[in-house]
Structures are given as structure tokens and as C-alpha cells.
Design goal:
Layout (H helix, E strand, L loop, with lengths): L23 E6 L3 E2 L3 H9 L4 E12 L2 E5 L3 E2 L8 E8 L12 H16 L6 E5 L7 H16 L5 E6 L13 E5 L18 H6 L1 H6 L4 E6 L3 E6 L2 E6 L10 E5 L2 E4 L3 E3 L9 E3 L4 E5 L3 H14 L6 E5 L3 H4 L4 H8 L3
Parallel strand pairs: 1-3, 1-18, 2-5, 3-6, 6-7, 7-8, 8-9, 9-10, 10-18
Antiparallel strand pairs: 3-4, 11-12, 11-17, 13-14, 14-17, 15-16
Helix pairs in contact: 2-3, 6-8
């Protein structure tokens, strides 16, 4: 079970009537410390961000037991002008085959409510992010029902969930609405994957399922980029912020593909590791999505699913990501139909 938690009651919460997603501009915040840069604060104000989907913690298995991990720490006050929607990522191996065991749901509900009270924010919805499969669908859906019951002991809340493209062909989860994750669409470990962040060809593959999916949906779109390290065309790791323009260390091979010309070490994406060694001959694929590609996918989804872009969420609010887009491009994404 999760670590012992205080049972705190959050009073005065109410949710918006009905199951339809919201309208307007929203962002995900997916870091372990709440601390906005001046650029990020200006971004919230300039683009009139109405909601922040705030990842509070992950639930992962440690020594065979589901435990909280990577909990968000608050180093500055939360903004007053945006509604906050807590998000919890649940690793699918934490789902119990015993669908009558509600302990995981109860502990998550209690911990989210506790964090809300401790950090002085009121919320009326909880979102769960989980990459469930057909084999554990029954356990996941039972968990969501138990979570809704556990939340009802603290007040009145909506419950939402992320929906990956491949899950459009499965039974929808028992939540009020879903957020379709239009990113991480390709197999990042496959050398042949053209762009693992967002590829319109991958989206089109699920286009027909989108039109008949019986759950209210809104869309979430990427503004981030990553770099994939390959050795002998075998995936090694995701890396970020490599200076591939450094011609002493990298040589361009083709658009988005670079070869390591000098062995060197870079910071590891795993904060517990000492570093990551790049060897001469390794290859780096840089996946990023220009605004016009995001808009093209948004139009594709809107054609198949009218209204999916009434609320647009970008992933994620991060200084390094948002600065690569102009204000006009961001405004176009938030206002796309």
C-alpha cells in the first residue's frame, strides 16, 4: 500500500455539471518542483490559460508494492487566475488483479486531498494518467470506480483520464471525460520511427476509431522535443538538450539525424545516474514538432471529431519548450478549430 497518509477533508468543492470537457486554453505542468520562470508566468497571462493540469506524483511499484514517487514540491505560490486540476500517473503494474481491493484508490484520493490542503489550492477534479492494456482493463476500470467513491468522501469531484491513441479501440474508462494524448505517438525505440513525438501518419491510423469513441474528449498536443540516442541502430536512451549544432561533437547526416564524431559524456536523463557516455559513431535523432504540424493534426482530429479542440491543452509548460514557438504560433494552436 502507499505510505501512511493523513485523512483530510476538503470542504466546499463542487464540479461543473455534465461530462463535457471544458473550453479554452490549458497546459500540463509535469515537473517535480513548482517554480515558474518569468517567461512561463508571462505565458500563462498572455495566452489567458484557464486551467493547469498539475502532476502531483507518480505511483510506481517498489519492492513489489505501489508507492508514491517523484512528488511535486512547491517552491512558490500557485497562480490565482488559473483553475488547478491535479494529475496522478499510475504505472499499470500497480493495478491489482483483486478488483475488490480499494486500498490503492483510497490512498491516492487521501494523498491528493492532503496535498491540496497543505499547499492551499482547491480543486474539483482529479485526472489519472495510466497506459492500461486489454489484459488489465478490468483492474483499471475497477480502480477508477473505487477512486470515484473514495473522492466522494471528501466532496464532489469530477474524474478524468488520459487516453492514448491505441486506447481509442478499447472500451472507454468510467470517467467523465478523456484527454486524447496526441504526442508520444511513435515507437521511440525503433530506429525507423520518423518522429516519435508526433507523426500525422500514426494519428490517421486511429482516425476512424476517434469518430465513434463514446467518451467526451479534448485534445492535448506537444510543444516539447527530445533526442533519441542509438548505438548500432539500437535504442540506448532518451536525451535532452544536446547541442547538436556543436560540429566538434556532432555531424549532420540528414534532417533531424546527427552522428557523434567525438566520444564524450553528457548529463544522464536519470537523476540517480552519474552521466551518459556518447561514443563516436553513435547517432542522435532529434524529434520536434513545428507549429504547422501541430495545427495539421488538430485540423485532422477536428474534422473527424468536431468539438475536440474546444479545450486545447499543450504539453507542457516549460521554459525551454515554449520559447521555440512564437506568440502567434501558440495563439493559433489555442484557437484552432
Amino acid at each position: 500500500m502507499l505510505v501512511p497518509l493523513l485523512l483530510l477533508v476538503l470542504n466546499g468543492c463542487s464540479h461543473k455539471a455534465g461530462n463535457a470537457p471544458y473550453e479554452g486554453a490549458a497546459v500540463y505542468y509535469w515537473r517535480t518542483i513548482w517554480q515558474l520562470s518569468p517567461r512561463e508566468s508571462d505565458f500563462l497571462h498572455q495566452h489567458r490559460i484557464q486551467r493547469i493540469y498539475l502532476r502531483l506524483f507518480d505511483v510506481v511499484k517498489k519492492d513489489g508494492v505501489p508507492m508514491p514517487d517523484a512528488t511535486l514540491r512547491f517552491s512558490q505560490p500557485l497562480p490565482k487566475g488559473c483553475a488547478l486540476i491535479p494529475v496522478v500517473f499510475v504505472s499499470d503494474d500497480c493495478l491489482s488483479a483483486d478488483t475488490t481491493d480499494s486500498s490503492l484508490a483510497c490512498h491516492i484520493a487521501d494523498r491528493v486531498v492532503q496535498m491540496g490542503q497543505t499547499n492551499d489550492f482547491i480543486f474539483s477534479e482529479l485526472q489519472i494518467d495510466c497506459d492500461w492494456r486489454t489484459s488489465n482493463q478490468a483492474a483499471y476500470f475497477a480502480f477508477l470506480r473505487q477512486l470515484r467513491t473514495a473522492l466522494s468522501h471528501h466532496g464532489s469531484f469530477r474524474l478524468s483520464a488520459t487516453i492514448r491513441l491505441h486506447q481509442l479501440r478499447q472500451t472507454p474508462p468510467p470517467v467523465d471525460y478523456g484527454v486524447l494524448m496526441c504526442y508520444n505517438t511513435g515507437d521511440l525505440t525503433n530506429y525507423r520511427t520518423r518522429n516519435a513525438v508526433l507523426d500525422a501518419k500514426e494519428v490517421r491510423f486511429y482516425q476512424q476509431s476517434l469518430g465513434t469513441y463514446p467518451l467526451p474528449l479534448c485534445g492535448a498536443y506537444p510543444v516539447f522535443r527530445w533526442q533519441r540516442l542509438f548505438r548500432n541502430r539500437r535504442f540506448v536512451s532518451i536525451v535532452r538538450d544536446l547541442n547538436v549544432a556543436d560540429r566538434q561533437s556532432f555531424a549532420p547526416v540528414s534532417p533531424g539525424l546527427y552522428k557523434v564524431v567525438k566520444s564524450h559524456s553528457v548529463p544522464s536523463p536519470d537523476p540517480s545516474a552519474f552521466g551518459l557516455r556518447l561514443f563516436a559513431g553513435d547517432e542522435v535523432k532529434q524529434d520536434e514538432v513545428p507549429a504547422d504540424s501541430v495545427l495539421a493534426v488538430m485540423h485532422l482530429l477536428q474534422t473527424q471529431r468536431p468539438g475536440i479542440n474546444r479545450q486545447v491543452i499543450i504539453y507542457s509548460l516549460n521554459d525551454k519548450d515554449i520559447k521555440r514557438y512564437t506568440n502567434e504560433e501558440v495563439s493559433a494552436i489555442f484557437s484552432a478549430e
